[in-house]
Design goal:
single chain; 57% helix; mainly alpha
Length: 190
């Protein structure tokens, strides 16, 4: 047998590390779609869009189900679902921003992209004061920057400017060469 026919078997440490990375990747991909996703899944599994908010706020509409999705009653000692603070805030945003979600977010009520749409994809000038008041405040960009970070930013800015200047110079140089080539071709034709 030559050395080329040997198959490398991962060490136990390498196998454990690969398993760990796989689990981390799985955990990173499994996340709530919205702040109310967990609650809606528990008591309003068949609701979509605006219906989710209506269902969550009205305990008489809650549908408890077992693991197989079959209807069930509260177990003795089991308390009714209490909405998390994040979910309550999200319900307020969906109510206050009703027309904005309808007009600018394709009606994505209680969706994973609702907040992204309202805070990033929609212009602040398109939001009503009531809607804007329920959205989280943006972090101040006026934070003090230490001298080292300011120097780093200046260096990066200068490098970007130099790169853009080089690209522009190359573009304009290429255009001049094309014009000279056309001029020589015309001179030969005459």
């Amino acid at each position: 047998f030559g050395s080329s026919s040997l198959v490398q078997v991962p060490t136990l440490q390498a196998a454990v590390e690969m398993w760990r990375l796989g689990v981390l990747a799985l955990c990173a991909s499994v996340q709530a779609l919205s702040p109310c996703d967990d609650e809606a899944g528990q008591v309003c599994p068949m609701s979509i869009g605006k219906e989710i908010g209506e269902c969550l706020q009205n305990p008489s509409k809650h549908q408890l189900t077992d693991i197989d999705g079959n209807p069930r009653e509260l177990e003795p000692g089991e308390k009714p679902l209490e909405l998390s603070a994040g979910c309550k805030d999200f319900i307020k945003v969906n109510e206050a921003c009703d027309s904005e979600i309808e007009n600018f977010c394709q009606g994505m009520f209680f969706h994973g992209d609702t907040m992204t749409c309202l805070t990033q994809w929609t212009s602040a000038s398109d939001l009503s004061t009531g809607c804007a008041g329920t959205l989280p405040k943006k972090a101040d960009d006026d934070e003090e920057v230490d001298a080292e970070k300011a120097a780093w930013r200046a260096k990066k800015k200068a490098a970007r400017k130099a790169a853009m200047d080089a690209i522009e110079k190359e573009k304009s140089g290429g255009e001049k060469k094309q014009k000279k080539g056309k001029k020589k071709k015309k001179d030969k034709e005459l």
